[in-house]
Specification:
Layout lengths: L2 H23 L4 H20 L4 H26 L13 E2 L3 E2 H25 L2 H4 L2
Antiparallel strand pairs: 1-2
Helix pairs in contact: 1-2, 2-3, 2-4, 3-4
Length: 132
Amino acid sequence: MKLSEYMFTFLMGYFIYSMFEIVSRGYTHWTMALTGGTVLTLIYAVNRKYALSLVRSCIAGTLMILSVEFTVGVFDNIIMGWQVWDYSDVPLNVMGQICLPYAGVWFIMCIPAYYLCRAVRRRFRSPAHAAH
C-alpha cells in the first residue's frame, strides 16, 4: 500500500465527481469535490483489501456513499445551512440528506468505480508483484 495510490485515487474521485455534478446540475460545491474524493478512496480501500465481486462492491460502495453523503449533508445543509442539496421532496428520504432513488444512482455509479479501482490497483502494483 502506497500513500501515492490513495492520493491519486482521492484526486480522481475529487475531479470525476465534480465533473459529474457540473454536467448533471450545472454547478458543484467544494465539499462535494472532497466528498467524491473521500468516497472513491474508501471504495478503493475496500476493493483493495477484499476480493469483492462487482455486485458486492456496488452494494458496499452504495452503503459507503450513503453514509458519507448523510454525514456531509448533516454538516453542510443542517449545521452550516449551506443548502448544497435537499432531497426533502424526493420519496423515501432521510432528513432530506439521502434518499432511496439516489441510492440506485450511486449503485450504478459504483460499476465504473469498481473497474477504475481495479485499473488503479494494476497501475500501482509494484513490478515485483506484476511478474507473479
